[in-house]
Amino acid sequence: MTPDNSSPLLSVRNLKTYFFLDEGTVRAVDGVDFDVLPGQILGIVGESGCGKSVTIKSILRIVEKPGRLVDGSILFRAGGQEEPVDLARLDPKGKRIRAIRGAEIALIPQEPMAAFSPVHTIGDQILEAILLHQDVSQEEAWRMAVQRLDEVGVPDPERRMRAYSWELSGGLRQRAIIAMALACNPRLLIADEPTTAIDVTTQAQILNLLRRLREQHNMAIIFITHDLGVIAQLADYVVVMYLGQVMEAGPVEQIFHDPHHPYTRALLRSIPSIHSPSHTLLPTIEGSIPHPFNRPPGCPFHPRCREAMPDVCNRGFPQRHAIDAQHSVHCFLYSPAQDGPAIPAATASEPSRQP
Amino acid sequence: MSQPLLEVKNLKKYFPIRAGFFRKVVGHVRAVDDVSFAIQEGETLGLVGESGCGKTTTARAILRALEPTDGQILFRTRSGEVVDLASLPEAELRPLRREMQMIFQDPFASLNPRMTLFDIVGEPLLVIGGMRDRRRRADRVAELLELVGLRREYMQRYPHAFSGGQRQRIVIARALALNPRLVVADEPVSALDVSVQAQVLNLMMKLQRELNLTYLFVAHDLSVVKHFCDRVAVMYVGKIVETAPTQRIFYTPRHPYTAALMAAVPIPDPRIRSAMTPLEGDVPSPANPPSGCYFHPRCPHAVDICSQEPPQLQEIAPGHFVSCHRAQELELVGIGGPATQPQDASPSGAQN
Lengths: 355, 352
Hints:
The complex is a heterodimer.
Chain A lengths: L9 E12 L2 E13 L4 E5 L6 H9 L6 E10 L8 E2 L8 H6 L4 E4 L3 H4 L6 H12 L4 H14 L5 H5 L8 H13 L5 E5 L7 H18 L2 E6 L2 H7 L2 E6 L2 E7 H6 L4 H9 L49 E3 L5 E3 L25
Parallel strand pairs in A: 3-8, 3-9, 6-7, 7-8
Antiparallel strand pairs in A: 1-2, 1-4, 4-5, 9-10, 10-12, 11-12
Chain B lengths: L5 E14 L4 E16 L4 E5 L6 H8 L7 E7 L5 E3 L5 H4 L6 E4 L13 H11 L6 H14 L16 H13 L5 E5 L7 H18 L2 E6 L2 H7 L2 E6 L2 E7 H6 L4 H9 L8 E2 L29 H5 L5 E4 L2 E3 L17 E2 L11
Parallel strand pairs in B: 3-8, 3-9, 6-7, 7-8
Antiparallel strand pairs in B: 1-2, 1-4, 4-5, 9-10, 10-13, 11-14, 12-13
């Protein structure tokens, strides 16, 4: 990292989470690196199967069996401590992670309907989160919960505290989820596709709310989505993932206006732009996302990549190539296989270069 | 203009709300409330709106998958005769079914996992087409699979072997089996990944050109609609609030709701971060809509008359219909928003 007034709040290095199934091993997350600075909105973009959800589950240590975190470190600077904690080394059921999960790192799950219990009131569920992590009285907790609901723009919060989740509209339910996530003033908020199930006008409200909360609380946000429009509107820094690996990472401006990785470029080209002429054929990415068991060797994108180089791209995963201090890419177009010291066996036979 | 392929007039679909021991009808959900539009042959009409606005119900009522409560659905058949699908008895409707087909949203739910592609795509040929000869059917299925970009060898496989995009191609092949003229596509690409979406949209455009198909395209993704449709109808709480050619509706919308929808579309360009305040509040329930114009409680331009009188759909320019009391006086901005100002990078100053 560049020397900066703020050192990263969360630093993920070489994260690997595999799922051990009878049919074989699925390498859902396979060596992911990124940093989140305090107050930063980090967007993770990728299509289905790219490992974005498993990455955040790994951070929260809520990966279900048969999945397991097999390697890597997740350094998190918990409140009031100089030394970061390595979340990857904590017992996923232990006291330490339970004190962090929900309090210092909070999650906004994808499905607001499924996230609330239908048989408890909204208020009870927010109170539970507060009382679990903070030493306050019932009355104090109630007051805090009402304040949170008010803050996220739920009208008439006192009354909504006594409502059930199914009595609320989609937008209100999403706000209530955010209020619950904010209950303990987290330093890091993780939002897993929080706007996929809701309409555009509600989505715009929620995005505005997240921006405002970031400014007011200097809260860092990891925002996961497949919607490039949302990323462009919200994120400061973007990580592009494909089949469990980071393809490109950089400031939002550079990802959208100076993308380097062929996958990022293809992804940006294939969305119908609001300014593109109608009825023209869209540039497409050939083929479809491979099944996790049939993961291609080498760079996972090479079978669909127009710029793939035979005998290079199928040989190993490209090293990280820094374009500048902030922007990096994993692609053999920029880091030739010959230079990479850690490229496995395949390149050992040096004359593999085209004669 | 010639007689449209499909003309919907004052279509209504109400669902009864029942309560009490005797299940007495205590009210109605007006899912589709007086909807009218027309589609010319070879044209694509986009039907957009937020969830619960009645766009899917409209699509289903047109195909008589739901019985319409009231209204006319005038369809010009291949022989040139105009029939009202809404009042046709099922027996007379049956032969017309081959002329209109549907593509569903979720390709994982719309294919029977226990049928092979041959059975799936061949079923309409057998059931409605009456094509008994297995070999002829196999030839036609092979032809259809190739038409949608799949290999004919796949015929003996089951849907589980295919990805989302390939499944949607299978759904399209099935819909095209009987050479339909009208295809109703209900969110055909919203369940697909971005990189696969483009493939399916391109396929649908290619098929339209080759087979002169007419599409009714139900969607909520406005950038897809803008790319794909010739004309767009915007629905809000069971009513059409605006209909216009695509370019007009996106760049010069005349209904405040359309403008709000356009402003809410996240533009995939970090240089254009709209500073617009989004629409407040929620969509009202179609069981208990507000008085007057249904949009008035959320409308930033509402005046007294808006809460008293429901506006009528009026033609303010050729082909541009708006249902708003103030359509003539309001200056609205379209896609991209008004104050499109580039924002600074992160306030944390992290990316110097």
